[in-house]
Specification:
Layout (H helix, E strand, L loop, with lengths): L1 E3 L2 E6 L4 H12 L6 E8 L4 E7 L2 H10 L5 E9 L14 E3 L4 E9 L2 H10 L10 H15 L2 H9 L4 E9 L6 E6 L4 E4 L4 E4 L11 E4 L4 E5 L4 E5 L10 E2 L15 H7 L1 H9 L3 E2 L2 E2 L8 H6 L2 E6 L1 H18 L3 E5 H4 L10 E7 L5 H12 L3 E6 L5 H5 L2 E4 L12 H21 L4 H12 L1 H9 L3 H9 L5 E6 L3 H16 L2 E6 L16 E5 L9 H13 L4 E7 L11 E5 L7 H19 L14 E3 L1
Parallel strand pairs: 18-19, 18-20, 20-21, 21-22, 23-24, 23-25, 25-26, 26-27
Antiparallel strand pairs: 1-28, 2-5, 2-11, 3-4, 3-5, 6-7, 7-8, 8-9, 9-13, 10-11, 10-12, 12-15, 13-14, 16-17
Helix pairs in contact: 3-4, 4-5, 7-13, 7-15, 9-13, 9-17, 13-14, 15-19, 16-19, 17-19
């Protein structure tokens, strides 16, 4: 199953419906930007829809030229195309019951072909190429049969295979929006005389800070004054509201040229906020993990599961956790984990890392781990997310909303959370003296200011990126904790600039990749500190000399004052002094800036790179 995350918003309340929908979609556009649409039930009882292919701005311009009638009930959608290309007719909402019902959908209905054949046999016709329209027509048919939209909805979702969030409204029922979810996020916003639905809290954070996350295989009916949550069998579900920890301004650009630029600028705060409230007397004490000391003493190995950037954060975390807690740690790609029959048991701790907490392949890996008897802990940035709820424990990062598709501040916050967990685990297991752990905590607490100093001197990185705008390929090298940073640097360049980029462990170069070196080939090298890596440092310098001898252009990311690098590299990007385990949090910042600036120099949209959406799952 391939699932791209779309943006969904629903509203019942007053006549500001169009503003609520369009504002919510603007904050959710990072989830999908192939097309967008809204449906509004106006004061006369008419159901009006408007949808356009392209980014949200196309729909915004259409509505400005031809306003839609105001109403108090509505749903809106930004799409990332799966079934059917990004065209006006494939955009959501889709209609059922002869145009009286509107429906939007995030996910994929895997048995759509079978259901479509059934409907065709019954004489129904279709206006789009989507699986979504199948659900809209099915619900319309069931509503005609039952006269009860909630029951019709329940009957249809029980027949759907795959992953979905569905929102529907009907012109017979003003002031009512119904939603359902399976393996795809849905959150309720609780207002005063108004209520909201969204694929995440950004959809409605401008209007309320109170939210409820919908669980797996659950339905919700909202009216202006009431919210009812049931399971797919109709049983009432007790919900637990939570407070959103950021406001709408956090999801705006705030004067920055792009969300990515803004979010890179927020990396010091993302690290500082993740640390905040988790240090007592020089030791890391994570409140969310209170009462779990016995579990942490008993485990004999840790498996970190994640995808993409999160997997690289997990790889950085392995070095610190093994060093501090003295326990073996491995990193697995979530989408490979459960298919290779991994050996895990009750003494295995499986740590999932996911910014959204909804990544499908990571969620399925967490469920597999739980079913296999392992304990599970999630590192997550989104309150109420499915992975967090289904894990035995959660350590939230506090990076705030990350809108740009390419992750930056979430990455540094994830590393920070893993470091905090490693120090917490070391304290609980007694693997180091309190004095040593306190020295590591002090180093970690100094990281935000050091990141800020790099950001304050980023002009050279921007110039370098503009000089290299015509590069066809860039290589990245690193050793020890520098290796996953090299991988992260390469990934960012692929995502944003659409050029070949590859990261290697420095020691692998002589085992094959050196064949790629030719005159003028740009190579970034993450150089370990000569103070903290007396063995590795000279080896990396030797690698630089080796590739320069073959004509490579070397850009070194090195500690300030590293005299050995200056005569060896073509360009040196200095980072502040830090202990060996803390260098990754600094070395990655120039690579984030470089990727953004090079893509900008090429005239590309750094917030919405092609073929990508914020949450992509492969399962």
């Amino acid at each position: 199953m391939l699932l791209y995350m779309c943006g969904i918003v629903g509203y019942v309340g007053n006549d500001k419906t169009v503003d609520v929908l369009m504002g919510g979609l603007k904050r959710l556009e990072y989830r999908g930007y192939d097309s967008a649409g809204i449906a509004v039930l106006d004061a006369t009882g008419s159901l009006n829809t408007r949808k356009r292919a392209g980014k949200l701005a196309v729909l915004t311009e259409d509505l400005a030229a031809n306003p839609i009638a105001p109403g108090s009930t509505g749903i809106g959608h930004t799409r990332w195309a799966t079934h059917g290309g990004p065209t006006d007719r494939n955009a959501h909402p889709h209609l059922g019951d002869e145009g009286r019902l509107a429906l939007i959908h995030n996910g994929i209905i895997e048995n759509f072909a079978e259901l479509r054949a059934e409907l065709l046999a019954d004489g129904f016709t279709f206006e789009s190429d989507t699986d979504t329209e199948i659900a809209a027509v099915l619900i319309g048919r069931e509503y005609r049969s039952t006269g009860d939209l909630t029951e019709a909805f329940r009957r249809v979702v029980a027949r759907l295979d795959g992953a979905f969030t569905l929102l529907a409204m009907h012109q017979d029922l003003p002031g009512v929006v119904i939603g359902a979810r399976r393996n795809s996020p849905l959150v309720i916003g609780l207002g005063d005389g108004e209520n909201f639905l969204g694929s995440d809290v950004a959809a409605f954070v401008q209007y309320t800070q109170r939210a409820v996350a919908i669980g797996q295989d659950q339905m919700v009916v909202i009216t202006p004054d009431e919210v009812t949550v049931t399971d797919f069998s109709g049983n009432h579900v007790v919900t637990e509201p939570f407070e959103i920890q950021w406001d709408a301004s956090a999801a705006d650009k705030g004067g920055w040229s792009s969300f990515m630029a803004k979010e890179i600028s927020e990396e010091p705060d993302a690290v500082a906020n993740t640390i905040r409230g988790r240090v007592e007397g020089g030791q890391v004490v994570i409140p969310e993990l209170a009462g779990l000391d016995e579990l942490f003493v008993d485990i004999n190995r840790i498996v970190i599961i994640a995808c993409g950037t999160a997997a690289y954060a997990g790889t950085v975390g392995t070095y610190a956790i093994e060093r501090w807690a003295g326990i073996p740690v491995t990193v697995e790609l979530s989408h490979e984990f459960r298919y290779r029959d991994p050996v895990i048991d009750a003494r295995t701790l499986v740590i999932s890392v996911s910014q959204s907490g909804e990544t499908m392949d990571t969620l399925m890996a967490v469920r597999f781990a739980s079913e296999s008897g392992a304990k599970t802990l999630s590192i997550c940035n989104t309150q109420g997310a499915t992975i967090a709820r289904e894990s035995d424990a959660v350590v939230y990062t506090h990076a705030g909303p990350e809108v740009a598709v390419a992750s930056t501040k979430a990455f540094t916050a994830q590393i920070t959370a893993l470091y905090l967990f490693g120090l917490h685990l070391a304290r609980v297991r007694g693997t180091h003296t309190p004095a040593f752990l306190a020295s590591q905590v002090e180093e970690l607490q100094a990281v935000p200011d050091k990141i800020a100093s790099i950001l304050g001197a980023s002009e050279k990185i921007a110039q370098l990126a503009h000089w290299m705008a015509d590069s066809r390929a860039v290589l990245f090298l690193g050793r020890h904790v520098g290796y996953p940073i090299a991988l992260e640097g390469a990934l960012k360049l692929k995502e944003l600039a659409y050029i070949h980029a590859e990261g290697f462990a420095g020691g692998e170069l002589k085992h094959g990749p050196i064949a790629l070196i030719e005159p003028g080939q740009p190579v970034f090298v993450v150089v370990p500190s000569p103070r903290g890596s007396a063995i590795l440092h000279p080896k990396v310098i030797s690698t630089i000399e080796e590739i320069r001898a073959r004509g490579a252009r070397v850009i070194a990311i090195a500690e300030q004052g590293d005299a050995a690098v200056l005569p060896s590299a073509d360009e040196v990007i200095p980072i502040p002094l830090a202990g060996p385990l803390f260098e990754p949090l600094l070395a990655v910042i120039p690579l984030h800036i470089f990727a953004m600036e090079l893509a900008t120099a090429k005239g590309l949209d750094v917030d919405q790179p092609r073929n990508l959406a914020k949450s992509v799952t492969v399962e």
